[in-house]
Structure prediction request, 163 residues.
Amino acid sequence: MPVTVEPLLARDWPAVERIYREGIATGQATFETQSPGWELWDAGHLPEPRLVARGGSGAILGWAALSPVSARPVYRGVAEVSVYVAEAARGCGAGRALLEALVAAATEAGIWTLQAGVFPENAASLRLHAACGFRVVGTRERLGQLRGLWRDVLLLERRRPGD
Prediction:
């Protein structure tokens, strides 16, 4: 399946939100239990880069975006990665295309550290991040509860080459 990556626009939100809800429903992608809606999602993510992957028909297969880890100026080059792929498109290369494009765009934007928090059980996400140069730097034990259960989160990091 051919995959193209392009900027995520506000008009893409319905498809992006549907994919986000699919990820939430798995219980393996996030501590969130419902979509925050466009306004909160928009406010919580950096304006750029925000990306969508489209299939040959133009349908959105997945999305990727960055969130700042802190408002402090010293951390302006550190961002948290979010990558979500539609259930029907998993395994077709959309996630890899998105994460590779996100890493490249983040590097061009001056971001020197990308981090991701991944549940240890999310093997597909761990493989994807490793394939794109992320490494596990630690385990945040019992970081939060999801549906009444404590969950560990692996902290992954990718540093810009040379930094």
Observations:
- Residues 49 and 80 are 12 Å apart (CA to CA).
- The beta strands are 4-7, 50-54, 60-68, 78-85, 113-118, 135-146, 149-159.
- The chain is about 30% helix and 35% strand.
- Helices lie at 13-26, 38-44, 94-108, 123-131.
